Amino acid sequence: MWCASPAAIMAFCAGLWVPNLLQAQGQGAGRQPGTDCEVCEEFLNRFYNSLVDRGINFSLDAIEKELINFCLGVKGKENRLCYYLGATKDAATKILSEVTRPMTVHMPAMKICEKLRKMDSQICELKYERKLNLASADLWKMRVAELKQILYSWGEECRACVEKADYVNLIKELAPKYAAAYPKADL
User: Fold this and answer.
1) Is a pLDDT exceeding 90 seen at residue 109?
2) Which candidate, 93, 104, 100, 109, places its Cα nearest to that of 36?
3) How many CB atoms lie under 10 A from the CB of residue 73?
4) What angle do helix axes 60-72 and 38-54 make, rounded to 10 degrees?
5) What is the pLDDT of residue 133?
6) Are 25 and 48 in contact (CB under 8 A)?
7) HSE of 59 in the Cβ direction (CA atoms, 13 Å)?
8) E-strand spans in the chain?
9) What mean pLDDT, rounded, does the chain reach?
C-alpha cells in the first residue's frame, strides 16, 4: 500500500486509515442535506479546506487562532456552533481543543462532530433553515415572521411596515436587487 500524501500517512499511523481519505474528510460530493450534525460537518469541512488552501501549519495554536478568526465572519446557525465550541467572545464554555487536536492529525469533520455530540448534544441539533425560491413562493400565504426573516437574511428591515401587505410589497420591490446575489433566500 503506497501513499504519497502526508495526510494519508498521518491517518494510517494514527489508526484512522480509510480507503478514500478525501471522502472521509468530508470533501466527497455525496453529502446529503439534512444529515446529522449538518451545520457542524459543513462548517468544519469549509474551515479545513480554507486551512489547506492557505497552507496554514496544522499546529494546535495555529488552528485555534484560525478557528477563532474564521468564526468572526459567520452568522446564524454557524455563529451558534462557534458559541458552543467557545470560539466567540461571549461563549461560556471553551471546548476548542476538542476540535483543534483532532484536526492537527487531519481527522474527518464527521468524526470530530461525532465526538463533539457526546460532549454537547446541542451541536448536532443545529440545522440549516430550509431554502425558499422566491420565484415560485406565494408571499401572501406566508406568515409575517417568515417575511421578516427573508428581509433579515438580506440585511434589510422595514420599520414602517404595519400590515402584511407592506412586507410583501417591500420584498417584491427588493427581490430583483437580491435575486442576482442570492438566488434563494434563507427562511
Assistant:
1) yes
2) 109
3) 8
4) 120
5) 75
6) yes
7) 3
8) 131-132, 185-186
9) 80
